[in-house]
Specification:
91 residues, mainly alpha, 4 helices
């Protein structure tokens, strides 16, 4: 397995995880139970799961009233795309 395959597999798994954690936190919020820390939700986005986290926000209608999620998650995704483009350009 080459490095590109490993990176793609990692990104798939971390985005599925980010999406899932958003759903879990929403479910726990509805049931007034223990919640996932907001810093943990952002951590999943920062380590590559931003697309999954954004999709989870939309699908589960979760954290959509918090400006720091509404603007922060897309900003993280944009920065990650720019970083990937820079890395790929430099080869």
């Amino acid at each position: 397995m080459n490095m590109l395959n490993i990176v793609v597999l990692y990104l798939i798994l971390i985005n599925i995880t980010g999406f899932t954690v958003m759903g879990i936190d929403k479910r726990k919020a509805v049931k007034h139970r223990w919640r996932v820390r907001e810093s943990t939700l952002f951590l999943f986005a920062l380590i590559g799961g931003s697309a999954g986290s954004i999709l989870g926000m939309r699908v589960f209608h979760h954290k959509t009233r918090h400006w720091y999620f509404v603007y922060g998650m897309p900003l993280i995704l944009i920065l990650q795309i720019l970083l990937a483009m820079l890395i790929l350009k430099r080869g």
